[in-house]
Amino acid sequence: MIRSARWPGALGLALALTATLPACGADDPQKVELKVGDKAPAFDLRTDADKTWEAAEHYGKKWVVVYFYPGDFTPGCTAQAKMFKEQMNKLSDLGVEVVGVSGDSVKTHDLFKKAQMLNFTLLADESGTVAKKFGVPFGPGAAVKTKIDGEVVEIKRAGTAARWTFVVGKDGKIAYMNVKVDPVTDAKKIIEFVTAADKK
User: Fold this and answer.
1) Which comes out higher in pLDDT, residue 8 or 105?
2) Which of 34, 77, 99, 136 is catalytic?
3) Is 29 buried (19+), middle (13-18) or exposed (0-12) by CB count in 10 A?
4) pTM here?
5) What are the φ/ψ torsions at residue 45 (nearest 5 degrees)?
6) Is residue 77 annotated as a catalytic residue, yes or no?
7) Which residues contact 164 (CB under 8 A, 6 or more apart)?
8) Do the beta carbons of residue 58 and residue 172 sit within 8 Å?
9) In this model, does residue 177 exceed pLDDT 60?
10) 68, 66, 65, 70: which is closest to 14 by C-alpha?
11) What is the set of domains in the chain, with CATH numbers?
12) Distance (Å, whole) CA 61 – CA 73
């Protein structure tokens, strides 16, 4: 994958998409079923900047949004990421940190973050290990075609996570979870939840 320090805004245009959504995995005897009030899973993953992000260093200090999504450069995931970017000032004011997790590689995350000028961290969960810790369905990989520097490029990801969102409270426990996420309203719903929770 070619890296570049500059990426025009048109990079986020998805031209074609081939995706296989994961099954629910209800028959998997090792499937994790988290619920509100459970301790949030500990994990560490590589970021879009190829650094290690360790949950233990973030849990307990602020609200932490861990949102799983199918893949970079896909229409719904791009819309979801843009909404988090647009709402980041409000989220930050509420003491909320956001991390997006998918089966894309560090390099693909780097491309996607620069293309959309995102102001939060993306984590590479290529094996689906962290998705499974949260009970998130994780299936086969897929490919998406997008335009980079005027050329159509096919980007492949190792696996595909379902679109689930979690909010970890300041006590390190799952405070909120949504397994039927609307990518356009996800960020606003989290703002509403945290605002209400802080008033209690």
Assistant:
1) 105
2) 77
3) exposed
4) 0.85
5) -145, 165
6) yes
7) 67, 68, 134, 136, 177, 178, 179, 181
8) no
9) yes
10) 70
11) 37-199 (3.40.30.10)
12) 31
Backbone angles phi, psi at 87, to 5 degrees: -95, 10
Q: How far apart are CA 110 and CA 105, in angstroms?
A: 9
Token pair of 174, please? Answer: 């799952």
Q: Do residues 81 and 102 touch, judged by C-beta distance below 8 A? A: no
Report the chain's mean pLDDT, rounded to a whole number: 87
Tens of pLDDT, residues 115-139: 999 999 999 999 999 999 999 999 9
Do residues 69 and 80 touch, judged by C-beta distance below 8 A?
yes
Distance of alpha carbon 56 from its chain centroid, rounded?
A: 18
**DSSP code, position 33:** -
Question: What is residue 95's predicted lDDT score, i.e. its pLDDT?
Answer: 97
d(CA 67, CA 84): 10
Q: Which two tokens stand for residue 170?
A: 């300041």
- DSSP-assigned letter for residue 39: B
